[in-house]
Specification:
about 110 residues, alpha+beta, five-stranded antiparallel β-sheet, 2 helices, about 25% helix
Length: about 110
């Protein structure tokens, strides 16, 4: 697997948009922390999860190709006491369309 960056033919703003959309979809599948912790994080503008991104296709991408990613969401150490599982892996397929701000995203949680 390769690092998900501009060396694969996508522009930085395209990568940022893809990461934002995928992260929002993954957040819906991650377990919630206790309400008081979630509220505190919200007001501090922080997140309890750290994401690492890797590209599954090792060739230069074109703007219309399907992008296959593996995303690992790790719970920050300070919140390990809130959840038994501290790491989740997701397989993501992203298809860029006519509107760069609305890519189609398909996410599967790996076990």
């Amino acid at each position: 697997m390769k690092k998900f960056d501009t060396s694969f033919g996508l522009k930085k703003n395209q990568i940022d948009i893809i990461k934002y959309v995928v992260k929002n979809e993954i957040n819906r599948q991650l377990p919630l922390l206790p309400e008081q912790i979630e509220t505190k994080l919200f007001f501090e503008g922080r997140d309890a999860w750290v994401y690492s991104w890797s590209l599954n296709k090792p060739y230069p991408l074109e703007s219309k190709d399907e992008i296959s990613l593996e995303v690992v969401a790790k719970l920050k150490r300070e919140f390990h006491h809130c959840n038994k599982t501290t790491q989740y892996k997701f397989s993501c397929k992203v298809q860029l369309g006519h509107d760069i701000y609305r890519p189609e995203v398909f996410i599967i949680k790996k076990t």
